[in-house]
């Protein structure tokens, strides 16, 4: 509701209150003339004539002629305005009361005119004359009839009859003046039920109670009018208040306005309770005695209070509607400020998290390193979970504001969209980083498995002593061991280079690619060694299966085991090799081998089948100073295997050479072989 609407409707309430209380006709209220009313020289008892005209009674009052003109005029003005309170045209919201008023009072009472009853039974003609003179001059309403009860004393009654005839034209009365000798004559014109007990009637009237009711009604009306004016002022103050920019300022303003509104609301509530209590007091006679009928004066008071209470309800309704809209506006302003404050706070947190994720570029160079990175990534993920949940809840809160038709929908909607984009970016980047680290962990575990398998293979080859392979049984055992070990490659799920490259291509950095190339080269070398060992063992097996011809030994010859120069068919198949295993494909980027290690290992396997004479060329090879560590290590383990078959002279030479090569021998025996990859 706009301020103009509030002001207009409250102004209408004030106007209706003035109309109800006849403020445009009678600016007086009972409290202003309370002393004159208490003197009781004129009363509005609530009785009605036969045609419904209100009756104003002038009871016997000693010193009537001494009443000041102003006091008489004020009392008459006040009394004659009261019936008009129900005679005024009612507003649309008073339709119900209009029907009630028709049953209780005549809405045309003021226009019909008043009936005056002057009781001068114990007074003189002079009092009658003064009363008629004042009524003729100062009575503010319309007159219908004037009834005069003559003085009871004979002489005064005579004076009265003569005076009425003599001064009739002087009074300038345009209404009939009926002289009555007794109240019985009066009952012939007015029903007893409309006359007070002083006039022989049955109408219950207590002047002090009437004054109290009128005073209370007028006080209630004045308070209602002042409250409506105060609400107008308060509404103007609220409407002209600028919305603060700060959240704390808005909270303070909302609290301040709410305190003022609560205070006014309490006053309205208290005023409503007072009005209801007053209405109950006026209706109290019928509450105590249901058979008792209220007089017209009491019915007029009830009608007045009901109309005033309707205006009070209208005031509460108007102000409540205005306050609801103002309070909603302040609340929405505060909601917007809180939303924007939380938005920038959460947005900054998410952006910082995305920056941290962007800086989290490492994928690890070993299993331990990757596991450590995964722990750090999990901490980062847990750290961002709170901000992520806040952002999601804030987006939902923004959606609710939009559904509630917030006045700033155009600024809230894009911020909700931005929050959701940030959340999606964080979730996607987080998942991408987790998947990358998972791939890296799988890669390094695979590389470790390959290295472990290669180390185990080297140890197996080194543990196969030459002297045990001199028999067919020993060769079969060695071949079976090799085949069993090669079968474990499936358990390790070793990938060939092409599969390896296809699976881990996206995370292969320069360092990881170099490491992978070394490991895969090592795998290829070990597989080549096994292939050569199988070939050598199968040649031994083939040699031992040939028939032996008894020949007398030459005295100067010594037994020598000569390796066959050409491959011969054998019942034992060599290590199967697929199209993906040749050395030309072990390099991920078709790089060439680091050295000719494979040729050297093949050479060792050829030496494995030679005779064990003293002129061992391997010793000559091992004694060279220009050997690479890799070649030197392979020569060492070959010499150690055949040491038992060498002559004393060769053994002596072996010991001298090993003393200089002891650090490498020590590394070999402990299975480190770290220099094998150099």
Automatic annotation (TrEMBL):
Keyword Translocase attributed: no
SUPFAM superfamilies: CRAL/TRIO domain (SSF52087), Spectrin repeat (SSF46966)
Alphabetized Pfam families for the sequence: CRAL_TRIO_2, Spectrin_5
Domain CRAL-TRIO stretches: 31-207
Region annotated Disordered, chain positions: 544-597
GO cellular component, one term: cytoplasm
GO molecular function: guanyl-nucleotide exchange factor activity
Keywords carried by this UniProt record: Guanine-nucleotide releasing factor
Biased composition (Basic and acidic residues): 578-597
CDD domains: SEC14, SPEC
Keyword Glycosyltransferase: no
Domain of life: Eukaryota
PANTHER family the UniProt entry points to: GUANINE NUCLEOTIDE EXCHANGE FACTOR MCF2L2-RELATED (PTHR22826:SF201), RHO GUANINE EXCHANGE FACTOR-RELATED (PTHR22826)
Stated name of the protein: CRAL-TRIO domain-containing protein
Higher taxonomy: Eukaryota, Metazoa, Chordata, Craniata, Vertebrata
